[in-house]
Design a protein that fits this description.
single chain, Spore Coat Polysaccharide Biosynthesis Protein SpsA, Chain A, UDP N-Acetylglucosamine Acyltransferase, domain 1, 2 domains, 14-stranded parallel β-sheet, 11 helices, binds uridine-diphosphate-N-acetylglucosamine, binds calcium ion, EC 2.7.7.23, cell wall biogenesis/degradation
């Protein structure tokens, strides 16, 4: 396989500056880990082999890497770098995961460069393999402040000769603003031979992958620099400040992508959209909205302001106003909010309504049914065209177990009905206001349980004398007596 391709993603470093018990590459932006972003970009080039080099926290990092194989639809190989002896040593470890007869191009990248995309990696691969016969092609960019990066040294006619690390550079070299992104394409044969020649004779005592470039040049090989203008594509994440900056930038790019595809986003700065969210044309996203996870929104829906949707499906023309929704479905032309909380497994049917201050959970609500205000509907099935009066509660929990409430089609549940589950209200049945339902209500019946009202005359005057209530009552009674 002379023209095989492999991508090696370096993820063995400690990530000390994150100051976290979570490995750096498992921190997330836009709903995906840094490692996940790197894997998605790499898998997009459909390499023959995709290798992740792990070291620090190797159990967690390798489990996370292997766990993405399904969504990537690509096999992942894990290589262990036992000790972090430098990037050259890490690549050496990564090559160990490739089959013995591998030949072709090895792309090396890092797991903490989340904005690097498939397009850029593919361009690097295409440049490297365009027939010029380069041993190495290194992705470079120009930055205003190159502190900390390896500097790219070039000849007068632009050929890359060497990369010098910050800690090993002369003052003149430190003034160079073209930097090594840490992303490269290597010819496998040359890479193997150059790695064998690395020595830790530098200020950090490490085996520098960057020395492969000087070694290739010294052997008369061609080294090319592939310059990208957009420095964010190759920006790394070392601390939580950069994590937020990269997150903001990725969000900006995601929002712009949706805008260009026909989504109205009123205020991109206050709108957060995870990378996997799908939004159809002519959806409107109002300010302060957070669209997370596997959320899917159909056309003409209006989301927000101030709404969070997590793993939620919203149908065409539906509206969700100032509400929080998790793992639920809101079908076409349904309305939710303001100020409601839909917990997992709520399914609100077409044209249905969950209005203000309602909470639902594990509830299937049929087409056109309404829960307009102040209710809790949990572990329940509601048929079509039913109305649930204000302040209705499905009393689903007996302190030990949860029970279901079933309400039929076209039922009318009176305000402040308590439905003590398990219980069933038939099609077309009514319940009176303030009813406590303990037994099933047959279709078409009216259920009432409140006792007849009794007024105990002058109770306040006798039992609460001297209070403002008693004073007010006394004055009112006097006025009635005068008439
Ligand atoms: C490296 C480059 C530098 C470049 C910069 C870009 C070298 C010697 N220098 O520097 O020219 O400008 O990246 O960000 O390569 N890693 C391992 N095992 C190790 C050491 C590192 O897997 O033993 C991994 C890290 O987890 C990280 C990547 O390699 O993902 C880069 O390592 P890091 O220590 O950050 O390299 P820099 O010093 O930043
Ligand atoms: Ca780094």
């Amino acid at each position: 396989m002379a023209n095989g391709t492999a991508v090696v993603i370096l993820a063995a470093g400690a990530g000390t500056r994150m100051r976290s018990k979570t490995p750096k590459v498992l921190h997330t932006i836009a709903g995906r880990t840094l490692l996940g972003h790197a894997l998605h970009a790499a898998a997009g080039t459909r390499p023959d082999h995709l290798v992740v080099v792990v070291g620090h926290d190797r159990d967690r990092v390798s489990a996370a890497a292997l766990g993405t194989a399904d969504e990537l639809d690509h096999a992942i190989l894990v290589a262990v770098q036992a000790e972090q002896r430098g990037t050259g040593d890490a690549v050496q470890a990564g090559l160990g995961a490739l089959p013995d007869d591998f030949a072709g191009t090895v792309v090396v990248t890092a797991a903490d460069v989340p904005l690097l995309d498939t397009t850029t990696l593919q361009e690097l691969l295409d440049t490297h393999t365009d027939g010029a016969g380069a041993a190495v092609t290194v992705l470079t960019t120009a930055v205003a402040d190159p502190t900390g990066y390896g500097r790219v040294l070039r000849t007068q006619d632009g050929q890359v000769t060497q990369i010098v690390e910050q800690k090993d550079a002369t003052p003149e070299q430190l003034a160079i603003t073209e930097i090594n992104s840490g992303v490269y394409a290597f010819d496998h044969v040359h890479l193997v031979s150059a790695l064998a020649q690395l020595r830790p004779d530098n200020s950090q005592g490490e085996l520098y992958l960057t020395d492969v470039i000087g070694i290739a040049r010294a052997a008369g090989q061609l080294v090319r620099g592939d310059h990208v203008d957009d420095e964010m594509l190759v920006a790394g994440c070392n601390d939580r400040i950069q994590l937020s900056q990269l997150g903001r930038e990725m969000n900006r790019r995601i929002v712009e992508g949706h805008q260009l595809a026909g989504v109205t986003v009123i205020d991109p700065e206050s709108t957060y959209i995870d990378v996997d969210v799908e939004i159809a044309q002519d959806v409107t996203i109002e300010p302060g909205s957070h669209l997370r996870g596997a959320t899917v929104i159909a056309e003409d829906a209006v989301i927000g302001p101030d709404t969070t949707l997590v793993d939620t499906e919203v149908g065409a023309g539906a509206t969700v106003l100032r509400s929080e929704v998790h793992l639920s479905a809101i079908r076409e032309n349904a309305t939710v909010g303001p100020f409601s909380y839909l917990r997992p497994n709520t399914d609100l049917g077409p044209r249905g309504k969950i209005g203000a201050f309602a909470e639902t959970k594990n509830a299937q609500i049929g087409a056109g049914s309404k829960i307009p205000h102040l209710s809790y509907i949990g572990d329940a099935t509601v048929g079509e065209g039913s109305n649930i009066g204000c302040a209705t509660v499905t009393v689903n929990y007996d302190g030990v177990n949860k029970h279901r409430t079933v309400i039929g089609d076209h039922a009318r549940i009176g305000s402040d009905t308590m439905l003590i589950a398990p219980v069933e209200v038939g099609d077309g049945a009514y319940t009176g206001a303030g009813t406590v339902i303990k037994r099933d209500v047959p279709p078409g019946a009216l259920a009432v349980s409140a006792a007849d009202q009794r007024n105990i005359e002058d109770w306040v005057l006798h039992k609460r004398p001297g209070t403002s209530s008693a004073d007010a009552a006394q004055q009112a009674i006097a006025r009635i007596d005068e008439q």
